[in-house]
């Protein structure tokens, strides 16, 4: 089926408009009509000098017209119509030209019908091409973000177990793969480090909040050569038996060198408690590190020992961050210090300041940001400049340990052994030690005397 182009239809309408004034057909259509009869519509040529207008020869129809005349557009439109529409266009033009003189009313009806038909066909074609162009868009439509996320999350994302876990007086983040804490945060004050809570009632045990699959067990430490080292120490929780007992959960424990645990690390913990004499609030973050070591080939490697059947990771270093505040009302700047110590025996010579590092360097080493709500643009002082950062020396520390042993003595013989060991170390007891010693000696002698009386027959 041939469809008359809209351009051709508009041309025919213009022709009708041009001929309303009379019956004469414009020369362009006369030539087109005559050429159609001879099969020469496509062979128009300029008229030679003296040649009659419209004369048809084998070379084509003679046409002569002034530039821009109305019948020029008629001829060009008819010629274009025939060329575009092919045989059907030729028949339409031929029929139209032959009947034009007879009935312009018929022509008007014909053209109107052609316009309506062409318009309908055009609309159909537009709808077709629009629908055709829309189909690929449906095929490449971007997926909805929310539905894609819901699909990914349908069975849940992997869980690391590093979420914050809160206890009575400490909070921590646990490393399920290494079976040790990543960090442990605690707050201490003068009131919290005094009280009746006693560690003799506490036992190391797995944290009931940690799935057994990821927990360490006491058996992992037995015979390993490593002690169970507190990150939040029991001595910081004398105010509450529950708070102290929770520090014995293995989620708060790392494999620690025995001498380090009982010695240098213990002295750092004692210094933190001493700070409560000068600061109302002290926050402490402690944890393990596995730092790279440079080998003989100059290459850095991270390697660490694991203990027990649960492969509890032994850290190469331990860190502690201390933040102290004089009082909530004080305008004095906060005092802060960060320290990293090797997980090995450390003597009494090294000072705490020798292990001090910048907070930024520790954050790079640990992958943690400490005290994220702290305004670091404010004036924060170095705690070793504001305070002493001085740990107990050998004499002070030995007297401290000996005094604690006085409290644990259960017989006069054991108490006297404490005094003997102290003097064997070349240390003379101070007044505080002697006061506690005499009081304990009286208690034990009275207890032994009562036991003797009970054994006597009545």
TrEMBL record:
Lineage, highest ranks first: Eukaryota, Metazoa, Chordata, Craniata, Vertebrata
Active-site feature positions: 230 (proton acceptor)
Name of the protein this chain belongs to: Nuclease EXOG, mitochondrial
Keyword ATP-binding: no
Cofactor(s) needed for function: a divalent metal cation
Main location: mitochondrion
Residue positions binding Mg(2+): 261
Signal peptide feature range: 1-21
Pfam families named among the record's database cross-references: Endonuclease_NS (PF01223), Exog_C (PF18026)
Family: Belongs to the DNA/RNA non-specific endonuclease family.
């Amino acid at each position: 089926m041939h469809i008359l182009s809209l351009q051709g239809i508009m041309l025919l309408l213009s022709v009708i408009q041009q001929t309303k004034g009379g019956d004469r057909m414009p020369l362009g259509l006369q030539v087109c009509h005559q050429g159609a009869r001879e099969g020469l519509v496509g062979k128009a040529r300029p008229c030679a000098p003296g040649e009659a207008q419209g004369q048809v020869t084998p070379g084509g129809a003679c046409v002569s017209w002034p530039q821009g005349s109305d019948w020029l557009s008629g001829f060009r439109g008819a010629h274009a119509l025939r060329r575009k529409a092919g045989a059907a266009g030729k028949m339409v033009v031929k029929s139209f030209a032959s009947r034009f003189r007879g009935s312009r009313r018929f022509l008007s009806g014909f053209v109107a019908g052609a316009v309506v038909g062409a318009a309908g066909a055009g609309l159909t074609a537009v709808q077709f091409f629009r629908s055709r162009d829309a189909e690929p868009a449906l095929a490449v439509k971007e997926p909805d973000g929310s539905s894609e996320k819901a699909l990914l999350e349908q069975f849940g994302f992997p869980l690391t177990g590093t979420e914050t876990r809160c206890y009575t007086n400490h909070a921590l983040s646990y490393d399920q793969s290494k079976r040790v804490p990543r960090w442990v945060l605690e707050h201490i004050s003068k009131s919290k480090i005094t009280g009746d809570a006693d560690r003799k009632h506490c036992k190391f045990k797995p944290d009931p909040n940690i799935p057994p699959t990821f927990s360490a067990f006491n058996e992992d430490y037995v015979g390993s050569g490593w002690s169970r080292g507190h990150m939040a120490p029991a001595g910081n929780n004398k105010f509450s038996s529950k708070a102290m007992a929770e520090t014995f959960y293995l989620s708060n424990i790392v494999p620690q060198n025995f001498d380090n645990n009982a010695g240098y690390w213990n002295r750092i913990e004692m210094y933190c408690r001493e700070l409560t004499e000068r600061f109302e609030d002290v926050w402490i973050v402690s944890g393990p590190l596995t730092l790279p070591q440079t080998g003989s080939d100059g290459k850095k490697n991270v390697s660490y020992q694991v203990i027990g059947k649960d492969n509890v990771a032994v850290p190469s270093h331990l860190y502690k961050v201390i933040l102290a505040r004089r009082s909530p009302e004080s305008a004095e700047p906060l005092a802060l210090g960060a320290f990293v110590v090797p997980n090995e025996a450390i003597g009494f010579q090294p000072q705490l300041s020798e292990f001090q590092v910048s907070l930024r360097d520790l954050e790079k080493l640990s992958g943690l940001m400490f005290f994220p709500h702290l305004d670091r643009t404010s004036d924060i002082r170095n705690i070793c400049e504001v305070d002493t950062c001085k740990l107990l020396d050998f004499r002070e520390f030995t007297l401290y340990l000996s005094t604690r042993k006085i409290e644990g003595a259960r017989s006069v013989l054991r108490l006297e052994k404490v005094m003997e060991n102290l003097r064997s170390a070349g240390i003379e007891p101070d007044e505080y030690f002697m006061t506690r010693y005499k009081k304990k000696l009286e208690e034990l002698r009275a207890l032994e005397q009562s036991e003797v009386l009970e054994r006597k027959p009545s």
